[in-house]
Amino acid sequence: MIHIYHPNKGVKGFACSFWRSDRHGDLFATLIKQSGWDEATKRGTFKASLDDPNKRITVKLSAVEACAILDCIERNRPYNNYHNFDSSPKAVSFTPWISTPVPDMDGTKLPPVQQGFSFAVTGTNKTDASVKNHFYIGLTYAEARYIKEFLLHYLSTTFRHNTVAAAIAEAIPSEQEKLIPADNTEVNSTDLVNL
Questions:
Q1: What is the fold, at CATH topology level, of the domain defined by 2-103+111-193?
Q2: What confidence category does residue 5 fall into, taking pLDDT thresholds of 50, 70 and 90?
């Protein structure tokens, strides 16, 4: 699991986490809205938002989506997808983060500058499409690299797990394979159907 925090004094910051579930090995990303600011320590807080579904959103990502995010980071291209699996569809995007600079003192227009990448998830109420809950975090190049390393580790772990599971499945004969005689004589096909 990795966490990235971007709090601000105006309590409009976000935090994001990428994590792998222990149960099935699925990949998830969570975005949380900032819940407070401690002026004395100059630190933001997010804990109060954990239990509020309007201030937190989680999306399950496939291995192919993880690869699409990696491709976005490596080739600097946008990635957008839409999840329509439950009562709250989600739009997911991982895109280059382009900021529009403030003009110079003399009014000279400056060109847009890429700051890194942005990660956004927008939840929509399926019964009322006008109700949207938008979550967004800007990521520096270093933070995008951190996510890249996590996703590479996730994919490697998934491949390793799948390889081990396949080897175990191959080592344990199935019920159908137990019916095949050791001398390779023919088997009555109705025996296999009646398992």
A1: Transcriptional Co-activator pc4; Chain A (2.30.31)
A2: very high
